[in-house]
Here is the input.
Amino acid sequence: MSLAAVEDGQREFSFSDQDFQSLARLARAEFGLSLAESKKPLVYSRLARRLRARKVGSFQQYLTLLETADESEERLELISALTTNVTSFFREKHHFETLKSELSPDFGKTGKARIWSAGCSSGQEPFSIALTLLETIPDAARRDIRILATDIDPAVVSRAKRGRYSNEEKSAIAPALQSKWTRLCPDAPSAFEFNEEIRKMISFGELNLMVGWPFKGPFDAIFCRNVAIYFDHETQQKLWSKFADKLRPGGYLFIGHSERVTGPAMDGFTTAGVTTYRKIAGSGSALEN
Ligand SMILES: C[S@@+](CC[C@H](N)C(=O)[O-])C[C@H]1O[C@@H](n2cnc3c(N)ncnc32)[C@H](O)[C@@H]1O
Here is the structure.
């Protein structure tokens, strides 16, 4: 008996290589996810709980269920189980320093800005963007300064919309910003929330980056950090090029610490710092407002 069969025998559900390949194909086609063979044990442990929750007895049955037209919610559960929503306020701080020093001064002068947080998870990233802008433009919420924040996972988008976080996360926010833009939650002493003014700056929505984007742009900056890490090289390339199309000339793309723009996608960008890129004027097909 092979080692795999022995392992399989110990599992609650059988999970053949064919089951894994079928799941990997579906995850790639629907969400751009790249699942290497080495991820098979991880995929099993993450999805076994979905099989239990849906009371199906095998991965084959689960796959049949996923392919059913009205199971779009289960497909979202699938991506939620296979990716992580880990995030924090002012994560990868250097991007916010660039936003403050390179972009904010112009926004202050023109009173206009468009920023997209693509893969915003539970909202700490767009709130960090808003806080950074408010540092230099205190009346930003009353000007034409807007942040679009999207994620594929409806559960994190609804947490983000609520704008309520555990007090433990507060220390990442400078005390002056805390006192100006946050308040304690009267009904939950262990939590804080952002006040109305800052919340007005952000529009939250559900969006799968692998399907059509229902907005024109152009954006002054796009944050897409620690999202493309799940995608294969070809999917990443397409995504970076699509971002170039949505940026104004000179606009910034900020990506995660383990991600890089490489190959043909780099034709549209120039490097502007650590995991920071600027759209080259004249490249892509971004439309001006
Ligand atoms: C690790 S979090 C990153 C959050 C934030 N950008 C940061 O760097 O802290 C990755 C997020 O990407 C989202 N995601 C994964 N695949 C996606 C897709 N195809 N379209 C949109 N969002 C996706 C996940 O739901 C998750 O919330």
